[in-house]
Amino acid sequence: MSKRCRIYANQYNLLTKMPFPLPLFSLQPATLFFAPKAFVFLSRSSITMSVQSDAINPSSQNALQTSQNYPVPLSPPLPPISKHIELARAMSASSKSSLFSLSRDDVVFEDQWLIVVNKTQGVYCESVLESVPQLLCDSAESVAGTPANQLELHLANRLDRDTSGLMVITKSHKVATKLVKAFTDHKISKTYIARCIGSAPKWERITLKSGHGRSKFGAWRVYAASDVGRTLPGGSMVRDMETSFEVLSINGQGSLKEPSEFKKDEANTIVVQEKAVIDKDTKKDDILVRARPRSGRTHQIRLHCQYLGISIRGDVKYEGVYEWKGRTYDGHELHAESLSFEHPITGLPVMFQAPVPSWASQALQP
To answer: Which residues form the Pseudouridine synthase RsuA/RluA-like domain (predicted)?
Structure first.
């Protein structure tokens, strides 16, 4: 009997000997559930089944989903190596974030309604937000008559821990509401730069349309486009996901075009319906791409890069290399490069662009 199973069994034995029910919060979730006017206890066999389902392997997950007519993910589960590496990165980021403070060099734009900053890799968004009041206090006594330490600061967009680049922080509830809605309604144009490792693409530009979701078993996954709208085991639904990609360089051969030149190739669009066939034994190339997400799903670019067989360097969660040519990586190499939208107050079109990180510049060197 496994350790977890023994714990559940001991809890069951203890509960059956109690003259009165214990409070709900003192029990493990797998031990009981609440019904009106009564606590209902599970049998020992039910407990064992619950423990076994926690340890279910990926192939069994897909079989279970198929048998219950749930959509089956088309991308693989998290690689075993990602577990301890991601934990180490999270601990490192927590330490780094606790000491983080914005400087004026991080500010890309600021007016009385919002501030746009260039986030550092390996820092949590919340730490960036928390450091804004001190930055404003150091530079001005008030903003539009409001003391800097009393502003209603909000994150208009979020970036993954290891993704660097542009973040927009609003200075009032009114502006936040308008800008968050613009992001939600996909009225904001975004571009990202990613350094990937994989077989050199045969395409120059491509658009990928698929489903996106996460079952109760784990990570975010790619689903078939035809699965959009279907319910997943955890109760959520598969949503649409679309990203356009453009190759900027392969093994140092290429150039960093301006984001305004980004074009969508309607003739080269893949509507995902089945698993990708990736030859993992082919020669690996160093590829720099620009991505324009036309939806805002969690880990969208990272998932679509994985599906295309060009996982982002350092992105161990989605099959990216942890070690490449004798070097290991502290995080994935993805950078939020540009943002274009109508200013929430003035209505004027604005475009912001962050300086490219060193790894992107190095990718352009033969």
So the answer is: 114-306
- Which of 161, 184, 207 finishes a domain? 184
Using a 10 angstrom Cβ sphere, with 0-12 exposed, 13-18 middle and 19 or more buried, the burial of residue 150 is exposed
Under 8 Å between Cβ of 121 and 164: yes
Catalytic annotation on 286?
no
Q: What residue type is assigned to position 271 of the chain?
A: V
Residue 265 CB burial class (10 angstroms; 0-12, 13-18, ≥19): middle
Determine the Cα–Cα distance for residues 5 and 165; give it in Å rounded to an integer: 45
Based on the fold, state whether residues 97 and 138 are members of the same structural domain.
Answer: yes
Q: Are residues 292 and 269 in the same domain?
A: yes
Statement to judge: residues 233 and 304 lie in one domain: yes
**What are the φ/ψ torsions at residue 26 (nearest 5 degrees)?**
-90, 0
Helix (H) or strand (E) holding 189: strand 189-198
Q: Where are the beta strands (DSSP E) in 52-188?
A: 107-110, 114-119, 142-143, 146-147, 154-155, 164-170
- For the cut 60, the answer to whether the pLDDT of residue 142 exceeds it is no
Sign of CA dihedral 173, 174, 180, 184: positive
Q: How far apart are CA 244 and CA 148, in angstroms?
A: 39
What confidence tens digit (pLDDT) does each residue in 161-172 have? 999 999 999 999
Instruction: Show Cβ contacts of residue 314 under 8 Å, excluding neighbours closer than 6 positions.
Output: 162, 320, 321, 322, 329, 330, 331, 332, 333
Under 8 Å between Cβ of 193 and 337? yes
Structure-block tokens of residue 293: 């997400």
Q: CATH code at 304?
A: 3.30.2350
pLDDT for 32 beyond 50: no
Question: Are 212 and 169 part of one and the same domain?
Answer: no
Closest CA to 171 of 121, 136, 204, 216: 136
- Whether the pLDDT of residue 239 is over 50: the answer is yes
Q: Which of 106, 160, 286, 315 is catalytic?
A: 160
Note the pLDDT of residue 6. 47
Parent domain of 15: 3-55
Global confidence as pTM: 0.79
Cα–Cα distance, 212 to 226 (Å, whole number): 11
